[in-house]
Amino acid sequence: MNNSDLVPPAPETLTAPTLDGETVHLEQLRPEHCSDLQDAVRDGELWNLWYTPVPRPDGVAAEIRRRLDLQEKGSMIPFAARRLSDGKITGVTSYYDLDWSAPRVSIGHTWNAASTQRTGLNIESKLLLLTHAFDVLECISVRFETHKFNRQSRRAVEDLGAQLDGILRNHRRMPDGSLRDTCSYSIVRDEWPAVRNHLNHRLKRSRGR
């Protein structure tokens, strides 16, 4: 991790820190990431997952603009995930629901190319984001939200060590007009040392160490 970039963002000047792992590099989302992200959504045709809003290739540019607009308004810090083995941008993720008074953040609005699954890339991305949230921003908790029917995402969040706080019924309207029940999970500060050890152990296993 590049410690020189780990500076808590002021609400009025949000900038994504640069977070470096062994397999993935998280950096500020930029318009020039569009072409790689179009390739990423084609990898697995991610837009066909009805329970999570992923743009089609021709909608990626608009999605980047949407996230950058939210960043300018102070409500999101968006990242692009760069796979270090080939230098390709393979997905996006974000801090959102930023509460600097606590402080507290949520991690989400995440999607990654299908080819990154079971490679340890998503685990390392989450470890980088959680480390920055707890150790640099000094958050008291970090939240994750997902669709009740997104079983894959729910398992992934639970495998991180997050605990289910509850299910928010009719919480959001999906792009197709349906109403989403949202499962809300969190990791609190007291749990972070154990979660960090757990994720580091999972990474070592995924790398055959």
From TrEMBL:
SUPFAM superfamilies, alphabetized: Acyl-CoA N-acyltransferases (Nat)
Flavoprotein among keywords: no
Residue intervals of the N-acetyltransferase domain: 25-163
Entry GO MF terms: acyltransferase activity, transferring groups other than amino-acyl groups
Transferase among keywords: yes
Key words, A-Z: Transferase
PANTHER family to which the protein is assigned, alphabetical: BLL6696 PROTEIN, N-ACETYLTRANSFERASE DOMAIN-CONTAINING PROTEIN
Protein name (database record): GNAT family N-acetyltransferase
Source species of the chain: Rothia koreensis
